[in-house]
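tool_log.txt
---
The assistant was asked to compare two proteins side by side. It first ran the structure predictor on the initial sequence, then on the second. Raw inputs and outputs are pasted verbatim so the downstream comparison step can read them without reformatting.
(1)
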Amino acid sequence: MTTDYSSERPRIECALQDDGRLYAGVRAIVFHSAQQAGLEEHTKEELAGATLEICRGAFAIARNSGRGDSAIKLIVGGASDQIEITINTRGTSPGIPSATR
């Protein structure tokens, strides 16, 4: 049995610390993946901005949870005509939800 991977784009995974200097990287990763999916310009910008806001919210939740580590994991991938973005905090608990958009 062979699997056709031609419709899949590379998946980008990164662990991020709560450092404002990394925010531009979040936007660039999402924008690039959205561009590869063929999304319109305004949609790429909106998706990148929304993802950044969710990351900021995840950092705030992690900081306020009392844990010493506020790192999050960002995963961006999908097929050729779609994009999937997952944001997880370490040790996700009922008080720290995982968001998939």
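(2)
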Amino acid sequence: MRGNDSDYLIFSPPINYENNRETWLKYDGKQKVLVDRKYYINEKSKTPVLKAYYKNENLTKSTPADILYIDKTEDNYFMLYRGDYNIYCGNKLVHTITVE
């Protein structure tokens, strides 16, 4: 090696899935929140997208707390911290939840 040259090896362990979500999402205290099918079953899109925003956030200026690409044949779960959330399908508010 010369001067400030460095070699790094960065690797990622294999990703494990549970209900189509990466299991590492729950390591930091996030909780699985089942999404009731009634909020997306009538959507015309093959893969509707649901977004969870903290209840007091501005939709146009913030990033969702979680985004789900819905599989209509499976159970679908948000991974969320404690708090109050508005759930949107597209730009339409479909539900409000509290995660304890």
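---
observation on (2): The mean pLDDT is 86. The first strand starts at residue 17 and ends at 18.
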